[in-house]
Amino acid sequence: MSTPTKKTTNQPGHDIVVTSAFSLIGVALLALLANAGPKIGKVVIILMVGFAIGWALINSGWMEKILGPPTGISPIYKRFTG
């Protein structure tokens, strides 16, 4: 007879708490580094902009679903172009 295996389940919302905690720790560390000096602060800003661009590229499908497909035409000129 086989021994019953205990199925482990995470508490609901566990992944949200862990992700938020790691994000807050990362932002705090970047803020501490940025405060270390003006040159390091510029490097940290460049790094943070890189993270934002990377996130936008990874989540471009989701952003297109929310914002709509890019048309290249500003919405204020849409009535003139059809």
What does this structure look like?
The protein has a domain of 45 residues. It is built from four helices and no strands. By secondary structure, it is an all-alpha fold. Helix 1 runs antiparallel to helix 2. The mean pLDDT is 82. The termini are far apart.
Layout of SSEs?
Elements: H1 14-34, H2 38-58, H3 60-67, H4 78-81
Helix pairs in contact: 1-2
Question: In whole angstroms, how far apart are the ends?
Answer: 73 Å
Radius of gyration based on Cα positions: 22 Å
Order of helices and strands: HHHH
* Average pLDDT: 82
Could you describe the largest sheet, including whether it forms a barrel? Answer: none
Q: Total strand count, please?
A: 0
- Strand % is under 5%
- Helix count? 4
What's the overall geometry?
Answer: flat
Helix coverage percent = 55-70%
Structural class: mainly alpha
> Uncertain runs with pLDDT below 50, 5 residues or more?
none
Q: Which features does this protein show?
A:
82 residues; 0% strand; 4 helices; mainly alpha; flat
